[in-house]
Amino acid sequence: MKFSKQLTRCTFDGPLGTMTLAAHDHGLVGIWFDGQQHQPDPSVWAVNPRHPMLASATRQLQEYFAGNRQVFDMALDLDGGTDFQQQVWRALLEIPSGQTVSYGTLSQRIGRPRAVRAVGTAIGRNPLSILVPCHRIVGTNGALTGYAGGLDRKTALLQLESPRLDH
Fold it and tell me: Is the model's pTM score more than 0.85?
C-alpha cells in the first residue's frame, strides 16, 4: 500500500496508546496505533494537528473513547487500497457499533463466500483503525482472532462499544 507524500499528520494519545492520523484536504487516509502491523513510515508527512480533517478526527476519537460517540462523521479516503480491499473496507463500515461479524459472513456479504482468507488479508491492511471497524470481525465461533493493533486493543475496543458482551 502506497501513500502520498503530500499527507498531513498528527498524533493522538488515546487510552490504548499513541496513534498516528494522516489526512489530506479531501479526507482522512489513515489511523494507526504506533507499532501496528502495516503502519507506513509517517516521517515524510508534514505535521499539523490543526488540519481540519485531523482536528475533527481527534475530537471524534476523544468522544468515542469517552463513550459519547458510536458513529464517526467524516470523509474517509480509501483509495490507498486495491478495488478488492476497498470493497472489504466499505463492508466493514456497515457493521454497527456493538456488533461483531465473522470473516465468513463478511465474505458472503461482499458476494465472495470462498474468499475468506483474502478478506482476512484485506482486513489486516485496513489503514483506518477504529473508523473502519476491523476490530468487529471475529472467527467463525466468535473467537477473537488477529488484529493488526494487537488482540488486547481489539478486546478493549469491543468492550468499549458493548460492555455487556463477553469477549
Answer: yes
